Amino acid sequence: MSGLVYSSAPHLAYVIVNVIADLNAAALVSICVGIVLTAVRIVRMESVRPASCAASSPTAGHTR
Predict the structure, then answer these.
(1) How far apart are CA 30 and CA 33, in angstroms?
(2) How many CA atoms lie less than 13 Å away from 15 in the CB half-sphere?
């Protein structure tokens, strides 16, 4: 999955659950979705570091 999906899924879950249930349930579901997605990335051995951090490094792409 792309980073956009990983970062937007907890927010989307929060909005949907907040419409259906109360604020506490929405916050709990949002946190759980974030934890599950992070665990999936770790199990799949994907980087949990955003790509933009490496690309914005002043030495990115430079070799010595």
Answers:
(1) 5
(2) 4
The domain ranges of the chain are 3-45
Q: Model's pTM, two decimal places?
A: 0.69
Please give the structure tokens belonging to residue 8: 């937007």
Contact status, residue 16 vs residue 33, Cβ threshold 8 Å: no
- How far, in whole angstroms, is CA 39 from its chain's centroid? 10
Q: How far apart are CA 31 and CA 60, in angstroms?
A: 32
For 32-50, what is each residue's pLDDT tens digit? 999 999 898 889 888 767 6
How many other C-beta atoms can be found within 10 angstroms of the C-beta atom of residue 38? 13
